[in-house]
Amino acid sequence: MRGSLGGPRVLLRRLREVMAQRVSAQERLDKIVVLIAANMVAEVCSVYVLRVDSTLELYATEGLNRAAVHQTVMRAGEGLVGLVAQEAKPLNLSDAQSHPAFAFKPETGEEIYHSFLGVPILRAGNTLGVLVVQNRAHRIYSEEEIEALQTTAMVLAEMIASGELSALARPGAEPAARRPLHLTGLGISDGVGLGHVVLHEPRVVVTNFIAEDVAREVARLDRAVDALRASIDSMLEGGEIDPAGEHRDVLETYRMFAHDRGWMRRLREAVLTGLTAEAAVERVQSDTRARMMRQADPFIRERLHDLDDLAHRLMRELMGRTHAPKTERLPKDAIIVARNMSPAALLDYDRTRVRGLLLEEGGPMSHVAIVARAIGVPTVGQIANAAGLVDQGDAIIIDGASGEVHIRPQADVQAAYAEKARLRARKQKQFAALRDKPCVTRDGEHVALNINAGLLVDLPHIAETGAAGIGLFRTEMQFMVAASFPRSGEQERLYSAVLDAAGDRPVTFRTLDIGGDKVLPYMRSFEEENPALGWRAIRLGLDRPGLLRSQVRAMLKAAAGRNLRLMFPMVADVAEFERARSIVERELTHLRRHGYLLPEQLQVGVMVEVPSLLFELDELFARTDFVSVGTNDLVQFLYAADRGNTRVSDRFDPLSVPVLRALKRIIDIGQAHGKPVTLCGEMASQPLGAVALVALGFRSLSVSVAAVGPVKAVLRQLDARRAAQRILPWLEGRCSDTRLRERLHAFAESEALPL
Ligand code: PEP
Ligand code: MG
Fold first, then answer.
1. Between 617 and which of 26, 56, 588, 669 could a Cys-Cys bridge form, CB atoms 3.0 to 4.6 Å apart?
2. Which run of H or E residues covers position 301?
3. Which CATH superfamily is domain 8-178 in?
4. Where is coiled-coil annotated (predicted)?
5. Atom 9 in ligand 1: which residue has the minimum CA distance?
């Protein structure tokens, strides 16, 4: 075939025949190597398969000693074959034995062959094995031959991935393609999920690799690329995209790649070797992934996502727009796997069938994380290449507490987690039994246990948990999951539904906390160096009072004839609070003048989450009706450690002397003013955190829905006075040891608290 393009096509056609034959896996492999060797005029063709123990086993050969099949095994990185697997790129040598990586395997009899061409067998960028051809003569294989061998490797990749070869393997030495994987990411939403993979953006499954008519495939590819380019152009020029936004940058990058000559050339070459246009897209993307995944540079990895998306779009052009996999029925135990996802996309899934969520990205405070917690979907984030490691329908287990993920778990792991899930269910039952019991400490202190909420889907939780009320209603959630700005009427309807659902129980609405990193896709955004310290929340509200006014008006109307509690986020000084409060007064006056029924009672409060307020507490309490402490932000600002940046977000422990001292100051001054103080940060949702807070004097907490049971169970066993006696001295400088968490743990243990 040297130099001729007819060669690979003929080979692919023959391979298709072999793939369709009803023969054993070994026979099929044996036929394949014979075909490849003959077609490439090579004296040797061998297939090495990557095993679960990371070694490469010779599975079939034409030309080498047959007795070496299933006997010769190379360690990872050993020999030329190991090198090809490790680097996931072709190796083309005219004198293999003089290469420093050459490893002599006497049983194969390969010493008489000088030239060597090895290509990785890749699937979704993962190496599954190595395909090699060898010749006696010293020669360098042509570009076309390398291309042809890579194309052939793709057919083998599908064969390996199908699991067909597992029957040939000894236990413990199975092909790695379907091996169980144990990975650890970041626990984002508590709970154990056992189920089967549903890819959020399913790889289009290419069933037909081998072209019947190459000219037709070239034409299909060209048409699809044209359509892709046109669709990107129309998105960019359609006027719906913010001219300065991030979305536009992404599309501009797509446009650049879609016109990239190298990409186009590789796609065309792959089609010319005899692949269908779809198979060519998959092959080129798989090679690209394999190369880019080996780069440490985060910028390059980010570009990989762009290229993945682009390949995905091109595939959709090829398969036709009717290809809409998400409408397929979900399995009853779906674990959704995605690179990242919007909250709205998560809510689109049938919740009764979703058992978990696995994200390649996804910080603990990302929007999708907040929604996942709100709807109680166990979630793990930060698993690199997660979508590339699984196949649709694979068995999978995720543990949202520890961040552990088991892909294709073995029976014992599966059994252990099933037991864990059963235990959890039993615990949930115990918590449910506490639902109607009061949250009172052993020494009679009542603690109001509220829940944090933000969406309609949260409302049934009030009754389910028996919570005292909603301590924090994050109104921005409605905005984050909407496709466009919710109108005042829609806001009013939501607030009214919340108040209806809560009945007599109090609800504290927080005005919009958007801006900074909480960007709304439909709102013009500004590039900011430090978004957390930027133009967000009340700052934006005061600068764009129209928005705040319409929201406040919607709240006042929704609460007509009932009680309304509203508070402002990110207030940094008393003057800001006064300005925000005056907006409420103005709206009240407006509604009164127009004859609207007003709330029966109105309380206006402040979130304490910017440290400057700690030094203006007296003035603040003199003016506010109540305070709610937002420790998520307060702690990030106290420690100057970005809560959304996983490199630093866990660096400092909120259960520390400085934080508890700050909280003590707030509760003490609040009590001196006779004003209610509550705390709605995540800290209250941790049973140990709740113990510390009650010791400090907090008698009202607002926690995530899943935390109501565990926190109530602990507080009902707590002696609040004894906790205060033990814990408060640790904050008074008499505690040289700053490892407060350990001390708190020891205290909880000595009191037999059910942590
Ligand atoms: C907080 O900052 O603690 C808080 C409750 O608000 P959010 O997490 O919405 O910023
Ligand atoms: Mg906050």
1. 669
2. helix 298-319
3. GAF domain (3.30.450.40)
4. none
5. 474
**All residues with CB under 5 Å from ion ligand 2:** 609, 630, 633
Beta-carbon count within 10 A of 749 CB:
10
Closest by CA position to 617, among listed 566, 670, 660: 670
Residue 300 CA to ligand 1 centre (angstroms): 33
Q: Is 439 designated active site?
A: no
Q: Where are the beta strands (DSSP E) in 136-180?
A: none
For residue 577, CA distances in Å to 435, 497, 601, 618 come to: 36, 27, 19, 14
Neighbour count for residue 197 (Cβ, 10 Å): 24
pLDDT, position 365: 66
Q: Which helix (H) or strand (E) holds 13?
A: helix 6-20
Ligand closest to 634 (CA) is: 1
Beta bridge partners of 697: none
Closest CA to 535 of 547, 551, 519: 519
- Judge if the beta carbon of residue 631 lies within 6 A of ligand 1: yes
Per-position b or e across 235-259, b if 16+ CB within 10 A of its CB: ebeeeebeeebeeeeebebbbebbe
Q: What confidence score (pLDDT) does residue 735 get?
A: 60
CB atoms within 10 A of CB 320: 9
State the SS3 of 657-709.
HHHHHHHHHHHHHHHHCCCCEEECCHHHHCHHHHHHHHHHCCCEEEECHHHHH
Nearest CA to ligand 1 atom 1: 630
Ligand 1: nearest atom to the Cα of 513:
9
When pLDDT is cut at 50, 70 and 90, the band that residue 84 belongs to is: very high
Paired tokens of 420 = 């864990």
Residue 351 tokens, joined? 């919740």
Which residue has better confidence, 92 or 523?
92
State the distance from the centre of ligand 1 to the C-alpha of 312, rounded, in angstroms: 36
Active site (annotated) includes residue 367: yes
Give burial (CB, 10 Å; 0-12/13-18/19+) of 433.
exposed
Lowest mean pLDDT among 51-65, 121-135, 633-647: 633-647
Radius of gyration of the chain (CA): 31
> How many angstroms separate the Cα of 271 from the Cα of each of 17, 90, 209, 692?
19, 19, 10, 65
Q: What CATH code is assigned to 438-750?
A: 3.20.20.60
Q: Which atom of ligand 1 is nearest to the CA of 630?
A: 3
474 CB less than 6 Å from ligand 1? yes
Question: Is the CB of residue 609 below 6 angstroms from any atom belonging to ligand 1?
Answer: yes
* CATH class, range 214-319: mainly alpha
- Domain limits, the chain: 8-178, 181-202+331-415, 214-319, 438-750
Kindly give the distance from the C-alpha atom of residue 192 to the centroid of ligand 1, in angstroms, as a whole number: 25
Domain 181-202+331-415 is found in CATH 3.40.50.620? no
Contact between 631 and 654 under an 8 Å Cβ cutoff? The reply is: yes
Alpha carbon distances (Å) from 626 to 516, 667, 678: 26, 11, 8
